[in-house]
Specification:
D-Maltodextrin-Binding Protein, domain 2; alpha/beta; globular; 12 strands
């Protein structure tokens, strides 16, 4: 039994899928499957039930996963303790950002991180909130900036700022003014991300409070693709105001959603199971200061 087998096992348990876990760990699926199978043979126990949508833990697997997490946590803490230097920040750091936040933050943040941590390897990666949640939980990302994260016992969530949401379309909807009431979205053909992304539950919850049901015609988890379809007349979508670079496109209209206003909370999320290094702590301070200046 080794730490790689434990990490693979926990990744599959949390992702609920060998394919998804292999992608998040960036290792071939056969390698991942072999590591889990070797672990099962050593434990003399089946850890997963297979089903059509993926896998779920067996009773013994559910018991063992907590021990595995504890071992991984202890090992990571030991590595952080030994590797960290009190005066020099070294090592690797991965920061996740949603596309809307990244568009504004990265041009200013990247040079600051390079200046403050010249001996460290820093990578900035973009992704939708749902994907970033999983990467943070699996230790693939040290921390991430996401929009309106759902509460979780496995995440530390630090709200940092808020931003207004807008209806975008090929032409203004409703009366054609700069603002549009949420109620007026009821009959519009909407293009929204999948339900595990931040926009969908936020909008649907607000609509449900008004007793209305949204007309969602397409699910697309790509900001760029959604924007292209909307610009070509394929429907409407809801975007954060931070995507200001898109507001100059003549093919798109932007209307602030009101009555009630829809807002997204920009939050920094960290896994409660993965100890954050001194490098990550210091970088988080730089990120928060930069965000404060730009928002």
């Amino acid at each position: 039994m080794d730490i790689c087998q434990l990490r693979s096992f926990v990744a599959v348990a949390e992702a609920g899928s060998y394919i998804k876990a292999a992608d998040l760990l960036n290792i071939p699926q056969p390698t991942l499957s072999r590591q889990v199978r070797t672990l099962e043979l050593e434990l003399r126990a089946s850890l997963f039930h297979r089903h059509g949508r993926g896998v779920r833990l067996t009773e013994k697997g559910a018991k063992f996963v907590e021990y595995a997490r504890s071992v991984i946590h202890t090992m990571d803490a030991a590595l952080v303790s030994v590797r960290d230097n009190d005066s020099v920040y070294t090592g690797q750091l991965v920061i996740g950002l949603t596309p809307s936040i990244g568009r504004i933050l990265i041009p200013t943040l990247a040079p600051l991180l390079k200046k403050n941590f010249p001996l460290a390897s820093v990578r900035l990666t973009e992704g939708l909130s749902g994907a970033l949640y999983e990467k943070v939980l699996l230790g693939q990302v040290d921390f991430a900036l996401v929009l309106s994260p759902a509460s979780s016992p496995h995440l530390t969530i630090e709200p940092l700022a808020t931003e207004q949401l807008y209806l975008i379309g090929p032409e203004p909807a409703g009366a054609g003014s700069a603002e549009i009431g949420l109620q007026e979205l009821a009959d519009l053909p909407l293009i929204l991300p999948h339900s595990n992304q931040w926009t969908r539950p936020a909008v649907e919850t607000a609509a449900a409070k008004l007793g209305m049901r949204l007309r969602i015609e397409l699910e697309i988890d790509s900001t760029a693709s959604t924007t292209e379809i909307v610009a070509s007349g394929g429907g409407y979508s809801i975007m954060p105001g931070s995507l200001q670079s898109l507001r100059s496109l003549p093919q798109l209209s932007w209307q602030k959603i009101v009555n009630p206003p829809l807002e997204a909370t920009i939050s920094l999320i960290t896994s409660t199971k993965q100890p954050r290094s001194k490098l990550a702590d210091a970088a988080a301070m730089v990120v928060k200061e930069t965000l404060k200046e730009l928002w």
